[in-house]
Amino acid sequence: MINMWEQIRMNRRRSVVLVILMAIVLMVLGYAIAEGSQPGAGPFGVLIAMGVWLVMSLVAYFQGDNILLAVSGAREIEKKDHPRLFNVIEEMQIASGLPKMPRVFIIDDMALNAFAAGRKTDKAVVAVTAGLLGKLNRDQLQGVVAHEMSHIVNRDVLLMTIVGVTIGSIVLISELFLRGFRFGGRGAHSRRYQSSRGGGGGGNIMIVVAIVLAILAPIVAQFVYLAISRRREYLADASAAVLTRYPEGLAGALQIIGGDPTPMARATKATAPMYISNPFEKPGVRALNLTSTHPPIAERIRILRGMAGAASFHAYDDALKKVRDKKAGVVPRSALQADQALPIRPPHTDDAPDPRMRMREAGDLVRQMNQFAFIACPCGIKIKIPPDYARPIAVCPRCQRKHPIPTATAK
Amino acid sequence: MVPLYIVLAAVVIFFLWLGATYNSLVGLRNQVKNAWAQIDVQLKRRHDLIPNLVETVRGYMVHERETLDSVTRARNVAAQASGAGVAAQAQAETALNQALGRLLVTVEAYPDLKANQNFLALQEELTSTENKIGFARQFYNDQAMQFNNRIQMFPSNFVANSFNFKLAEFFEIEEPAERAVPKVSFS
Q: What mean pLDDT is predicted for residues A115-131?
């Protein structure tokens, strides 16, 4: 199964090399800690490090998307709940040649964000916040969805999971060791044991190595992780522009997202790289921040808007080089080779409901998720009854008509 | 005998290459077919939606019988053209696009219709189906391009020629017609 969208994932040798390097760091760390604590225990330490890594990988691989969805408070919806979102996602599924329609989730949050999950292309998940549905028009929503689907097609979800797990293992092991050392645990104990024996020179050197590694490795690993994450964001932006043939859709969406101050309620640092924009980005940050999972929004917008006249990887790469003032682009050569000069399509004028209707639609969706009951009053008002409404009758605020509350409020 | 080994090795490598190239060409051809099937699914879906649309609209548009009939006629022609080849189908779809475009312009004059829930739902479906056809066409053309490149480029062109692989046709909707579809703007 190689279609032109898969070109990007074929050329990610650099990412693979980085993962291998991080795995080596993890093993050396395990070796140094064990050898420093107890001479000769080095290989055993490597085994423990690999064991930790393996367990975390298995959990992340098989349960990663479920954990992510549970942590973000996302709930699955069906087509009838929001036909427009479903249609936009299906359009992008067709454009990207994804074998199956992703499952669609709504996050009950008025902040503007979205994420994708799913380690395989046929197990994909796309989640958007209710705020996003309310604020974006169809073209912008399409841009965001295309960005998220690109993460799936480019296999970023899988890559970031592996990288994340490796870093997690490094951090975990370093943290345990340093803590034990500081509070006179096993590390300190064996050091005393070593020096009383008098001949523990090798162990002493090893323990210094272990301490230095335990302090430095997590920091370096996180910088590597963030660098990979930012690179994959650029790539997903490029893919989205090519998929939709309309860079302005995503650019406009990013502008709205960047200008919105509502913070994400339930994002965590671990889930940050999966979102379309960094849930922790402070408004007005312009310079490239080395501690951020995403490139600055303003820069992403400038690159997308700088794609001169063509919706192609070439155009994106050229715009990126110009905006970032760098010689090196981010798009892999294999994708550039398969590239075609594609014209940018005109915007859709068929923007479904007007902004106020859109907001109301999104609000109703959230209320429905939260088991509100809806009563359509003949005067044209839709009365929304919260699930904890206790009285048996609701009065219409406009025409004062009385409505009995339906007993079964469950959806 | 060393030279014999070399000749044998060369023959084996040649056949391995031949097999691999042939298989990848077949794979690409199947993908092109698959991508075409995707367009077909969406075109059929549009053909299914149009009678619904005409029925919903008919109650409101008593004076537009001619426009409605021309949509229905174009729809029937397009439905029959499916399976008649890429070029014929593209032509029939172009005609359908034009008829639909005219209908959608007349809808503007009926505010009641534009507030009808049923019509709004149909509008969303039709808009999206239109987009899906566009994206399926885009994907098909990308795949066809990739397949054609392999057929024409050295060295896979030898394999393609000897096993009679044919170039895939691109699905083009004529430019003026493309513009005549006012991007299904009901609003």
A: 84
3-state secondary structure of A220: helix
| CA nearest neighbour of A136 among A124, A125, A148 | A148
Same domain, A180 and A133: no
Residue A404 class from Cβ within 10 Å (0-12 exposed, 13-18 middle, 19+ buried)? exposed
CA distance linking residue A171 with residue A337, whole number of Å: 39
Among B38, B146, B185, beta carbon nearest to A4: B146
> What is the chain A residue with the closest CA to B147?
A3
Query: Out of A91, A340, A351, whose CB is closest to B131?
Result: A91
Active-site residue, A233 included: no
Is residue A121 in some structural domain? yes
pTM: predicted TM-score of the whole model, two decimal places: 0.78
A94 vs B: CB within 8 A: yes
Domain that residue A383 falls in: 371-404
Write the pLDDT tens digit of every residue in B168-178.
777 766 544 44
| Residue B34 CB neighbours (<10 A) | 15
H/E segment holding residue A129: strand A125-129
Q: What angle do CA A108, A114, A115 make, to 5 degrees?
A: 115
Number of Cα atoms under 13 Å in the Cβ half of residue B144 = 18
- A189 and A138 belong to one structural domain: no
Q: How many CB atoms lie under 10 A from the CB of residue A342?
A: 18
CA distance A376 to A392: 16
Task: Say whether the ipTM exceeds 0.85.
Answer: no
Q: What's the Rg (C-alpha) of chain A? A: 26
